[in-house]
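# nightly structure sweep
# worker-07 picked up a monomer target from the shared queue
# config: single-sequence mode, recycle default, output format = structure tokens
# input follows
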Amino acid sequence: MKSLFTEDMSMDDIMRASPGTIHVVLKHRMLCVGCPIAPFHTMSDACREHSVDEPLFVDHIKCEIGSKNEPP
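# output follows
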């Protein structure tokens, strides 16, 4: 199965493609939701900007997206 996201996607694209990721972004106290820069920042950019542990954040995003791909 093809992944719903790639790590070079913008934060805006990720949140639009999988709205469940918004709570992950907010949990990490990132201000990407509604930010005018979100269409330009990748996850790496956003993590660096907000001093967030990138591997942990990416794992949380993957878990959120992955949980939506599993059959009920």
